[in-house]
Amino acid sequence: MSVSRRGFVAAAGGVLAQPLMSAAQTATATTTATTTALTPSGAIAGASADGRIPAWAGGLQEPPAGWSAAMGYRDPFPQDVPLAVIGKSDAAAFRHELPDGLAMMLDRVPGMRLRLFPTRRTAGYPAEISAAMAARTGSPRLSGHALADAGGRHLPFPEPVNGLEAIWNVLRRYTGGGVVREGRSFVVRANGDSSAIGFWSRRFYASHLEGAPEDLHFVAMGGYLAPASLRGQIVLVHEPSDLSRRSRSAWIYSSALRRVRRAPDLAYDAVADGSEGIFTADQVDGFNGSPDRFDWVLQGRRAMIVPYNTYAIAESPLVPSRLLHKGSVNPDLMRYELHRVWAVEARLRQGQSHVYGLRRFLIDEDSWTVLIEEAYSPRGDLWRVALHGVVQFYDARLPGVRASVYHDLDSGSYFVSGLDADRQPSIRFHQRGRFSDFLPDAMVRMAT
User: Fold this and answer.
1) b/e per residue, 113-138, with b = 16+ CB within 10 A?
2) Can you give the pLDDT at residue 3?
3) How many domains does the chain fold into?
4) What is the pTM of this model?
5) Which of 112, 213, 257, 445 has the most CB atoms at less than 10 Å from its CB?
6) Distant-in-sequence, close-in-space partners of 237: CB < 8 Å, separation ≥ 6
7) Is residue 409 helix, strand or coil?
């Protein structure tokens, strides 16, 4: 798979043009007092003062009655009705809780609307994971932009004091130990035309890998099932546990050349085949890889309208004509709720290269999942908006991204990923594997 890359270098001593700040972004942030009761994941356990955000009660720990894995992940709240449907003309009334990215989409995307539902704090974890997070063992610390001495800890900084600590919580959050997934993605162009992509992926953390080296954090391998032009191409990543000592290693297997080659540029703002350049490598999974090209600013904790419990968007059977609308996915298949989030800003460091000059992340306090990313161009204008709809995978007892939608506001195109395959179950958690199956030679064996 060929990988292209484009970027810019911040001029020495130059000042990046700053976007206008919304009322939501300039509002006083809610911070955690030392007397505030916290959940194992560091979230505020209690309800909001107005009661719109309920108290956390352990999350959704059981599947709906009568559910089986062959059904796929069905909406456990089919009886819920929207509290409001926010359109372009209604945006001003919700502006103090509406992220800039959603406000811009309401303004620019014809037919865009947000169905605002009652807040359900569904995020929860297996008992042993919750206990480990609550124990706060070890002494994680920052070494430059890298995390050191974290061991196997999933929550290094339960009460972050800066943006870098918050983003390391994102990078270290528990996502299932060993996850095997198959699904579909779509590129949708401004005129409504679309192209389908089939994919498979495997991500295993060191705790779930036999023979894993001590300095390994996780391995990830993925490939294309469709279209024919991409079928058989495979990517492999080894992510170290301490990025201050060793950088990520990556390889690509080319089905056309039938050989493996190193891919040192498969990170940061690299663009992979199939995406049509709509998002970058470090936008996958909300944010991934080394955070060393940005300065991270913690803007506090606040209540915002975000995609949450978005089961319907990926329910099987997948009908593209129903899901894929011009400008964005069908708004009747999206669900938004009011949740407390950590707001973090990433500013490109002087002398560093990236297509984005500034990025803003809204991170779920209950799961440390990036729910919304707003990415700004070097000129300072809002360029791209990524929505990551989190759900509780109730049989596995953990939260995760159900589907991601990356919008390019300039071109009017978008990319939606993580949709279920027709075969169920399309995703399996808590799997175990062998490190030897995630070496470059294994890519050749899989391809043949």
Assistant:
1) bbbbbebbbbbbbbeebbebbeebee
2) 36
3) 1
4) 0.91
5) 112
6) 219, 220, 221, 248, 249, 250, 266
7) coil
What pLDDT, on the 0 to 100 scale, is given for residue 159? 95
Residue 355 lies in a domain: yes
Integer angstrom CA distances of residue 191 from 187, 268, 347, 410, 419? 11, 29, 33, 13, 22
Candidates 112, 81, 129, 44; CA nearest to 339 is 44
SS3 91: helix
| Predicted confidence (pLDDT) per residue in 125-145, tens digit | 999 999 999 998 889 999 999
Is 19 within the bounds of a domain? no
- For residue 448, the model assigns a pLDDT of 67
Is 310 among the domain residues? yes
The 10s digit of each residue's pLDDT in 190-209 is: 999 999 999 999 999 999 99
Q: What percent of the chain has pLDDT over 90?
A: 79
The Cα–Cα gap between 198 and 232 comes to 11
Residue-number span of the structural domain to which 271 is assigned: 35-61+73-447
Mean pLDDT, rounded, of the chain:
90
Task: Evaluate whether 75 touches 311 at the Cβ level (below 8 Å).
Answer: yes
Helix (H) or strand (E) holding 4: strand 3-5
* CATH code, domain with 45: 2.50.20.10
User: Which phi-psi region, left, alpha or beta, contains residue 105 (left: φ > 0; alpha: ψ -120 to 50)?
Assistant: alpha
Q: Which tokens in the block code for residue 327?
A: 């400008």
Of 380, 361, 381, the closest CA to residue 14 belongs to 380
